[in-house]
Amino acid sequence: MSAILTAGNRHIDLSIPVCMGIINVTPDSFSDGGQLRQAGANLFKVDVDKTLRRTKQMVADGAVFIDVGGESTRPGAQQITADEELERVIPVVEAITRNFDICVSVDSSKAIVIEEAINAGAEVVNDIRALQNKAVLQKVVNSNVAICLMHMRGHPQTMQNNCNYDDVIAEVLDFLKTRVLICERNGIVRERLLVDPGFGFGKTLKQNYQLLKYLPNFEVMKLPVLIGVSRKSMIGDVVGKVSDQRLAGSIAATTYALLGGANIIRTHDVAATVDAIRVHSAYLDA
Questions:
Q1: What is the rounded radius of gyration, in angstroms, for the C-alpha atoms of the chain?
Q2: Which of 33, 51, 70, 197 has a CA 20 to 30 Å removed from the CA of 25?
Q3: Which one from 54, 192, 203, 266 is the annotated catalytic residue?
Q4: How far apart are CA 147 and CA 176, in angstroms?
């Protein structure tokens, strides 16, 4: 696996795992929805200054990426229009890229949002639908951004209704291999690609932990692996705590992901996650 990810004009060293901080500019994301809204607004409007303060802290805590999302993808979440998503995401991407020298990722599956976010300075496209929308595929083919391909069955509204696998590891791997092949056939070089098994996206509790346990199987793809387990129900269902009380469980899962070969940890809790990465690195170097 190449240890260098090409993302826009950046070449990011992933030989040591790094952290991606989450900025959810939504009213309804499962853990932090609504926290970045303008005070006193009847309808949800993003407070860009709040996002900059949160980004500043994440950068200080050691984040290498900032992932900006304007549409909740929690199980059962309702879709929003492209105009709504643009209104939430683009001012934030513009503000972050203007104020910080950090790699910004856009968490979206809409072609127009992805195009405008790239124009605003985003250098990674984090697509939960793995570029299955041909319009989205074309937008990234014509760019130089990095792309994260994630496994999900169906849509956020229905994904937890279809969790039947004969072999969850093999089927997730096969899906991601197919999407990588399609990217390559369309001229996207492997140095721009990441893969994500999609924890919580169309998987049962046991299947999520099977993916975590057998994460080393994904090394066969010879691509960097992004992991998102932060505060998810796979943690809450085990520890019996609400989302903002799942830090210890999230760090425990992160540690297993690091041992399994994860290269990027996507998290709400950057400081603690960076500490876990540093301890893991010291452990490997001992």
A1: 17
A2: 197
A3: 266
A4: 12
Contact 194, 149 (CB under 8 A): yes
pLDDT value, residue 33: 54
- The total number of residues written for the chain in this structure: 286
pLDDT band at 164 (very low <50, low <70, confident <90, very high): confident
pTM: 0.94
Mutual angle of helices 247-259 and 205-213, in 10-degree steps: 40
- Structure confidence by residue, pLDDT tens digits, 28-50: 655 565 677 766 666 778 889 99
Average pLDDT of the chain to the nearest whole number: 92
In whole angstroms, give the CA distance from residue 83 to residue 65.
Answer: 25
In this structure, is the dihedral angle defined by the CA atoms of residues 254, 260, 188 and 74, taken in order, positive or negative? negative
232 catalytically annotated: yes
Domains and CATH numbers, the chain: 4-285 (3.20.20.20)
Q: In percent, how much of the chain has pLDDT > 70?
A: 91
Which of 225, 167, 157, 235 has the alpha carbon at shortest distance from 197?
225
Structure tokens at 99: 């104020």
Residue 6 has pLDDT above 70, yes or no: yes
- Reply yes or no on whether the pLDDT at 283 is more than 70: yes
Residue 15: count other Cβ atoms within 10 Å of its Cβ: 11
**Catalytic one of 54, 231, 232, 246:** 232
Question: In whole angstroms, what is the distance from residue 12 CA to residue 20 CA?
Answer: 12
